[in-house]
Amino acid sequence: MNDLLSRSGMPPLPFAPLLSASDIPPGALLFESDDLEHARREIGRIYRPYRFTAARHRAKPATLFNLEGDSSALSWFAYGTEITIRPEIFGSFVLVLTTLAGHADIRSGGLAHAGGPGSTVLVASNERAQFHYSEDNVQMGVRIDTQRIAELWRRVCGREPPGALSSCALLEARRRERWLASVQALRQLLHPDTPPALKAMQLPLAEEMLIMSLFGEQLAEAMPAGGGIAPACVKRAAAFIDECAGQPLTVSAIATAARCSARTLQRAFHQWRGIGVMRYLKEVRLQRARAALQAPDDPASVTEIAARWGFGHLGQFAADYRQAFGERPSDTRARR
After folding, report:
1. Which of 74, 158, 191, 220 has the fewest C-beta atoms under 10 angstroms from its C-beta?
2. CATH 1.10.10.60 fits 232-334, yes or no
3. What is the rounded distance in angstroms from the CA atom of residue 62 to the CA atom of residue 80?
């Protein structure tokens, strides 16, 4: 196998067992090319389209290895030249980058972080980012779907996550160690030699542990005082909304299904999910609309999909959609 890390001249690292060349299955190689435009197209398919400026001198070919999970993906990539990358806003995922070799300067939102081997940065889903990589740089990238993060947040805390999560550097050694250990478990499960039955059984847990290693402290802080489990009326209301999101719904109808008064339901929703009942309904509908826009076998137009999920005003739907996912509905449709 053409070995990405060996070609990079990567020095020994404290966490070499995780980042060694043997971690990369031969079948994970997506491309190796001296054409940076070809690299841009291929990497854009895995992450997001981007613009770049690069030095003329090339040390090695651009290379990408990738392993896909259910709601995550693990990649290793190098450009083989000094390069600046300006990607589109991620929207539907967060990205955690660990520098394996060389140097990286990462800027996203209010974050500006430069570092060498071992530095790890979380790039938020809703912030514009810029990455500058040295000629000998090698990166490991872990993509995690924001929908999966939100689902875990709701289950653990009984409420919606507090808006989009901000970009940050993982500066504490223990936090980086926990993160790299969770990536190691994910890599083992995503290896092509892993038995399918074992992968199906353990991958959801591995992806959950990946999220917990990133956001565990924030999840603990977000739990209601005294801990506990969300009231039954909140669970019944959420289940009713999830089942009937495509139908005309009112707070009264949802409260009736939840077997409580509208006032009690609103108060419980704010306490346990951090938002109102109708806001939760809107977020569920936006997620369903996004899934339809991404579906290759759904011929409906953007207008038809918006109407299907209760959005009567197309302009407002587009504005809400862009705020939620960082892109226009038509952008999502164009990439399906």
Report:
1. 220
2. yes
3. 5
